[in-house]
Design brief:
- By secondary structure, this protein is an alpha/beta fold.
- It has 2 domains: about 220 residues, 3-Deoxy-D-manno-octulosonic-acid transferase, N-terminal domain (Rossmann fold), CATH 3.40.50.11720; about 180 residues, Glycogen Phosphorylase B (Rossmann fold, 3-Layer(aba) Sandwich).
- Helix content is about 50%, strand content about 15%.
- The protein has 19 helices and 14 strands.
- β6, α8 and β7 form a beta-alpha-beta unit.
- α1 packs across α2 and α3 crosses α9.
Length: about 400
């Protein structure tokens, strides 16, 4: 941990934007906790929920909102590790305080918990910080892992990984996404584990019910031509999409890139050679004249999926795909790149017949042609899979708070 802190400090010193934001957040975390933490009165409980970034926040969100609705006197403190997650949700109104998690040293863990004094701690998915888990255990605080998932290649299960495996024994209970994780943990002597599912399915289902109308997108798709919604794309994804659109003049594309800074947008515009319009500059005439709508604002993707027949999810040619079920819940086929095998829902979508993975343009073209031709059948399979996974929020909430 000290080596990691040093490397972050060096990166920040040399101008790495995310590292600089992380160091700034770390410096203010304890002061923020001391000055903004509400007074803990009477018998009211305080629940600490820790997430890494935006994706894990979306898994915690159904639990937070259920807790706020049913037990409004409970104080909820939400911590982030990632600057991107913190900056996006620092004003989230359903909790009493949002702050950074101080770096996980023994000294920081003691100082943080001395001030916070939680009655319960909840870590989401892949968050296993030794210093915090040991200190929570020493203080007798009930501590849970939710929506977690385990694979045999993780460090817990390697020959040299026993110290990390022993960390899992410090949890009061572990609520995992699937039976495979239960069997794996049982094989290694971790018994306090149950299947509860993934709360993200409940979240995307609720989001679909609250989808907003976006007039520019509605106008763009009103001609009735097939529409691809490409979400959270990176440059390799955009190259495939640009070629496909150039070869298929009867298809429209709504492109929602993962990064919307001007340098990346300029790369996108070059690939589409004038056949596009930016959402922020769209007019009725321009929307009717182009085949590509580039969404250059944040926070709209979950509602935009309602306007398409097929979804393509970016990230699969990099570190991993983004959120597939956010599209699948609308009853549309979901395509993505080759780096998907660590994502349980993507594997399940392929198995259910509602998703396809592609490695190159030839596979992309074949998969996209099939998905557009059979979008109703494949989309029904995708939405049925999402429906089958609902209910994790009820299970976890009832276990922890009832």
């Amino acid at each position: 941990m000290y080596i990691y802190i040093f490397l972050v400090w060096v990166a920040a010193l040399f101008g790495h934007k995310k590292a600089r934001m992380l160091m700034q957040g770390q410096r203010k975390a304890m002061d923020e906790l001391r000055t903004r933490l509400p007074h803990k009165a009477g018998k009211h409980k305080r629940v600490w929920i820790h997430v890494s970034s935006v994706g894990e926040f979306e898994q915690a969100r159904p639990i937070i909102e259920r807790l706020r609705k049913e037990l409004p006197d409970v104080q909820i403190v939400l911590t982030f590790f990632s600057p991107s997650g913190y900056n996006l949700r620092k004003d989230y109104s359903q909790v009493d305080l949002v702050t950074y998690l101080p770096f996980a040293t023994r000294r920081n863990a003691r100082a943080f918990l001395d001030v916070l004094k939680p009655d319960m701690a909840i870590f989401v998915k892949y968050e296993f910080w030794p210093a915090y888990l040991k200190e929570l255990n020493r203080r007798g605080v009930k501590t849970y892992s939710i929506s977690s998932i385990f694979r045999d290649k993780q460090l817990f299960f390697r020959q040299w990984g026993k110290p990390y495996l022993n960390l899992l024994r410090l949890f009061t209970a572990i609520y995992v996404q699937d039976e495979r994780s239960v069997r794996l943990l049982h094989q290694h002597g971790i018994e306090h584990v149950q299947v509860a599912g993934d709360t993200r399915f409940d979240r995307v289902h609720a989001t679909r019910e609250q989808a907003k109308e976006i007039p520019q997108v509605a106008r763009f798709v009103q001609s009735g031509e097939p529409v691809i919604i490409a979400g959270s794309t990176w440059q390799p994804d955009e190259q495939l999409l640009a070629r496909y659109i150039s070869e298929n003049p009867g298809v429209k594309l709504v492109l929602v890139p993962h990064e919307i800074h001007e340098a990346h947008l300029h790369q996108i515009f070059q690939q589409f050679e004038g056949r596009y319009v930016r959402l922020t500059e769209a007019t009725i005439n321009s929307l009717d004249a182009v085949r590509v709508l580039v969404v250059d604002t944040m926070g709209m993707l979950s509602s935009i999926y309602q306007y398409g027949q097929v979804a393509y999810i970016g990230g699969g040619f990099g570190v991993g795909i983004h959120n597939t079920i956010e599209a699948a819940v609308y009853g549309m086929p979901v395509l993505f790149g080759p780096n998907y095998k660590n994502f349980r829902e993507a594997c399940a979508l392929i198995e259910a017949g509602g998703g396809r993975s592609v490695k190159n343009y030839r596979e992309f073209k074949d998969a996209m042609d099939e998905a557009l031709a059979n979008h109703e059948t494949m989309g029904k399979r995708a939405s049925e899979y999402v429906e089958s996974e609902l209910g994790a929020t009820d299970k976890i909430y009832n276990k922890l708070f009832k």
